[in-house]
Amino acid sequence: MDYVSINYYLLVIAAVAVYYILPKKIRWTALLAGSAAFYWFAVKDLRQIGLFVFTILVGYVGGRVLEKARKKYLLWIFIILGTAPLIAIRIGDLSLHSLLHRERFAWIIPLGLAYYSLQLISYLTDVCKGECEAQHNPLKFTLFMSFFPQIVQGPIPRYKSISTQLFEGHKFDYDAMVLGLVRLGWGFFLKFMIADKAAVVVNTVFDNSSAYTGAYLWVAAFLYSIQIYADFAGCVAMCKGVAELFGIQLADNFRQPYFSVSIREFWRRWHISFSSWLKDYIYIPLGGSRKGKIRRFLNVIITFAVSGLWHGGNLHFIAWGLIHAGYQIVGDFLNPVWKKITKSSESDAASTATVILNRCITFVLVMLSWVMFRAVSLREGLQMYLSMFTHFNPWILVDSSLLRLGLCWQEWIVLTVSILVLLGVSIMKEQGKDVRALLAGQNLVVRWAVYFIFIWSIWIFGTYGFGFDANAFIYGGF
User: Fold this and answer.
1) Which of 80, 104, 234, 252 could crosslink 187 through cysteines, CB 3.0-4.6 Å?
2) How far apart are CA 192 and CA 299, in angstroms?
3) Are residues 309 and 353 in the same domain?
4) Of 179-183, 287-291, 326-330, 348-352, which range is least confident?
């Protein structure tokens, strides 16, 4: 069972129906039952479920203990116990496969491990600091750890921001339900019309990168940048849409990241819940920027190395993290010079051009980092970089070469138009416009005509429309 399966939405419908039938005080039990059912049908492996239950027990007991005895050594004990499976898998893969070049160990990997481990760390840390009270009801704590719309891919919730929403019970709101369904539909659009189509070309090139050079790799890098954003943002839109059916607002996880004018800003807009988690629980505890420039650079390197290791126990993930650390450190030295250059003209046109240029530079830098992220190995990523900058074959962009990468010309048109739709919606959001509210404000005929065209387009032109199976969500694998 996954977020694009029929069985998942049958479960959602059942959970929503039960939720609003029950009295408000106990509506949270419908969420708990739905979460338990989702986890069971998605996993069906008692070993994985057992590890997840163990983590929940550690978190519950740890919270109760730390509420009474706020000692750092106790905090570390419970964090290590609760995150031991994730630490073992990441360090084990890094040591055995990446460094010793041996076969990977057959780990037992519970569904959502990387996400609920971070939830556990933030919960225990906040309780220890006195920033939130420990949950005394073990079933409510289980719901916090396992809330099914977000356990697989986030957003990563903080207990103090979501607990009240989970437990208080919400009244039925038709308008909110419609807005949730619209967000859900947008998630399907991003997944089926963009991410899974781009994946055809991306997989063709990256999975056999030695057969492609120069412009082929640039095209694949560009499409992977679009794919990973559409895939991840699409899944989060589905998660938030389903949560809204229960009256629950999950935190925003993206804010038009490819409109960033710097790498630092990109990380304030990309995977926001994870970025803020890294800042609050890694970067700031290390000292942040309070202990001088050299120490700050070291803290940045450690933080991004942790980010890479969280994604996987492979050297190319760590290299991806270090690339972003390098971007920020180099940018810290170059920003003063760049600002002097770009401020040489104070005209509005020059200012707009500077913003556009900064956005383009940031996008290219992020795109290049995604090459290492998607590569099969560190060596392959480095070889792809070499080929991208040493082979010159731009003619493949105007002849029929791209049509041999898995998509016919009709599908290229659908993908291009879909990306333009995403761009248009992103521009509106960047301007502060609420696209869903604008749509909801239209008259009934216009509103439902748009809904129908949107659903029909996904059904006919989306992934299923061309006979492809939906690819697993990218960030569901971390």
Assistant:
1) 234
2) 39
3) yes
4) 348-352
Q: What is the mean pLDDT of the chain?
A: 88
Name which of 455, 472, 462 is nearest 2 in CA terms: 472
Q: Kindly state the tokens that stand for 433.
A: 């416009």
Domain match, 336 and 384 both: no
Sign, CA dihedral 468-469-473-477, equals negative
**H or E element: which one contains 60?**
helix 46-68
pLDDT the model gives residue 466: 43
State the residue range of the domain holding 199.
Answer: 173-250+375-478
DSSP letters of 193-209?
IIIHHHHHHHHHHHTTG
pLDDT of 350 reads 59
Residue 380 to residue 311: CA distance in whole angstroms:
18
Cα 59 to its chain centre, rounded Å, is 24
Tokens of 393: 């074959």
Asked if residue 141 and residue 127 are part of one domain, the reply reads: yes
Q: What is the pLDDT of residues 398-431, one digit of tens each?
A: 888 999 998 988 899 999 999 999 999 999 999 9
> 45 with 52: CB under 8 angstroms?
no
d(CA 422, CA 194): 9
Token pair of 252, please? 């925003």
**Which of 157, 120, 171, 148 has its CA nearest to residue 238?**
148
Domain count, the chain: 3
Q: Tell me the two tokens of residue 65.
A: 């203990």
Residue 332 counted as domain residue: yes
Q: What does the H/E/C string look like for 431-459?
A: CCCCHHHHHHCCCHHHHHHHHHHHHHHHH
Omega before 155 cis (within 30°)? yes
Burial of 414 (0-12, 13-18, 19+ CB in 10 A): buried
pLDDT digits (tens, 9 = 90+) for 217-238: 999 999 999 999 999 999 999 9
Instruction: Quote the radius of gyration of the chain (alpha carbons, Å).
Output: 23
Do residues 344 and 410 share a domain? no
| 243 and 296 both lie in a single domain | no
DSSP line for 223-258: HHHHHHHHHHHHHHHHHHHHHHHTT--PPP--S-GG
Nearest Cα neighbor of 235 from 296, 149, 308, 304 is 149
Give the CA distances from residue 196 to residues 206, 224, 400, 415, 458, in Å, rounded to whole numbers and listed in that order.
Answer: 15, 10, 22, 10, 12
- On the question of pLDDT at 313 being above 60, the answer is yes
